[in-house]
Every structure is written in C-alpha cells, then in structure tokens.
Amino acid sequence: MKCYFDTCSEAIKNASETKSFGFFYSDSKNQNQEVHVHECCELFFCVAGGNSFLIDDKVYDISDGDIFVINQFEAHKVVPDKREFFSRYVMHIHPSFLYENSVGNVNLADCFYTSGRVAKMSLSLAEVKRMTELFEAIRVDYDYGDEMYKKLRAVEILLETARLFSIHQGNLSDEFSHKTVQLAIDYINRNYSSELTLDAVAKSAFVSANQLGRLFNCYCGTTVNKYIISKRITEAKKLLAGGHSVTETAFMCGFNDYANFIRAFKKAVGVPPGKYRGGEK
User: Fold this and answer.
1) CA–CA distance, 178 with 221 (Å, rounded to integer)
2) What does the alpha-carbon distance between residue 71 and residue 111 come to, in Å, rounded to a whole number?
3) How far apart are CA 44 and CA 92, in angstroms?
4) CA gap 78, 44 in Å, rounded
5) What φ, ψ does residue 173 adopt, rounded to 5°?
6) Could you list the pLDDT tens digit for every one of the 281 residues in the chain?
7) 89 close to 42: Cβ distance less than 8 angstroms
8) How far apart are CA 214 and CA 207, in angstroms?
9) In 71-183, beta strands by DSSP E
10) DSSP letters of 43-74?
11) CATH architecture under which domain 179-278 falls
12) Would you kindly state where each structural domain of the chain is located, as residue ranges?
C-alpha cells in the first residue's frame, strides 16, 4: 500500500479518493505554493528549518519540533527559513477517517475542529523522537497485512497527536512576534465581506502600503491581496457547506463580481462552487 507521495498534491489526492490518508516528506526549502485550501485535514510536523506559518487568521512562529493541525476550511501557507534546509513531514487526512476511527471519549477530530483552538504544539525532544518514529514507521512495507498495518500506524499518529493536544492545549500561546502583520490580518478578517484596499489595510496597521507589502511577503510568504482572496474563499467554503446558494455566498464574502468568484473558488479549491456545494465536503 503506497502511503508516501512525491508531492503534497498527490498525497491529498490519495486521501480524498480513498477517504483515508496520504503522506509527504521533504527536506527541500523550495516552497512555491500560494495560500491554499484543500479537502483534507492536515498534520504538519516541522523537523527543522521553518520560519512562520499562516493558518486562517493567525501567523505562527515555527521552531524545530512544532506540529500544526489544520482543517479543510483553513487557508494556509508555510514560510521556510531561507537560511536553512527545510525538513518536514505532512499527513493529509480525509475527515471521515478521523470520525470512523474515533472511539468512546477519544475523538481524533477534536484537535482539528475544537473552537478557539491553537493550531500549534511545541514538542519536547522525547515527543519529537516519538513522532518521528511514527512517521517513519509508515514507510515500512510488510510482507503480510501491509494495508492493515499502515492504517494502524496512521491511526497511531492521530492518536498520539490527540494525546499531545489534550496535554499541551491549555498551555499554548498563539502570539506572533510581528504585531503589524497580525493587526493587518485581524482587520481583513473583520472586513472581508466589504470592499478592501491595500491602503485601508495598511492604515489599520499604522504603516504605509509599501511597508505592509514587504512585511506580508517576509512573514506570510504572500501578498495582502492574495491573503484577502484566501480568507474569502475559506469563508465561502463554510457558507456553501452550510447550505447557502452560490450567489448568496459570493455576495456575503465580498465578491462583487460573480464570475470572478467562480474563477477564484475553482482555482483555490479545484472545483467550481456549485459542484462543491452539491458534492461531499
């Protein structure tokens, strides 16, 4: 059973098509992705070389040994440290796999969906060693019961993540070191349904438009306008999943041009909003 793939997109495709999971590992610092959303939850384990991680409405500093949990409604982009190699494991999980393998009071989905949660967990050296061993165990091919063993290993990773979440969550801080960028993000998140300009966002953060553009690129790895679009698409997915029509959703998320909404949504999600609304989330 193949579990590790050459790209994140192949891992996502496998998780989506099989309603299970897919893995990706890389130690390359090449990072060409834009802010994106996809149909699976994501477990991101930074071994070394991370800088910052934009997840929905927060920017997190990354240290070696940090784990991030992201659900399918959260737009995100990781920014590597340009001075270092960038080593990370990524696990993509279809939401149904989380619920199907939850038992009793152990809900594997809690760390992905708990309201007000912090998406980051900073692990101890012992916890990093244990998590690395679990991710590497998926690489092993078994002569007998290969598919079953790998599913068990995948559940074990999720169970360990849920355990760590229950221990660490109350003591975590989601503070980001650069307050100017966070002020801009907070303003966008409050006003994404209205018309937004770069000048207005910069004014909310008490800097010039040029300064904000440079800071956003440095800490978020993207532009202000691309973040605005990603925020609108993230909220659009939630509205469509909740039963709103495509037209209502476009208006409620600040897209004044219907055709532009269709194009932006399909580019970000992979399918047009009408098909997303009618299909399985």
Assistant:
1) 14
2) 9
3) 9
4) 10
5) -120, 135
6) 999 999 999 999 999 999 999 999 998 876 656 788 888 999 999 999 988 888 887 888 899 999 999 999 888 988 888 777 899 999 999 999 999 999 988 999 999 998 778 889 999 999 999 999 999 999 999 999 999 999 999 999 999 999 999 887 755 555 566 788 888 999 999 999 999 999 999 999 898 999 899 888 888 878 999 899 989 998 999 899 888 999 999 999 999 889 999 999 988 888 899 988 875 44
7) no
8) 11
9) 76-80, 87-93, 120-122
10) EEEEEE-EEEEEETTEEEE--TTEEEEE-TT-
11) Orthogonal Bundle (1.10)
12) 4-171, 179-278
Residues 6+ apart with CB under 8 A from 266: 272, 273
Contacts of 43 (CB under 8 A, 6+ apart): 67, 68, 69, 70, 90, 91, 92, 93, 157, 158, 161
CATH of domain 4-171: 2.60.120.280
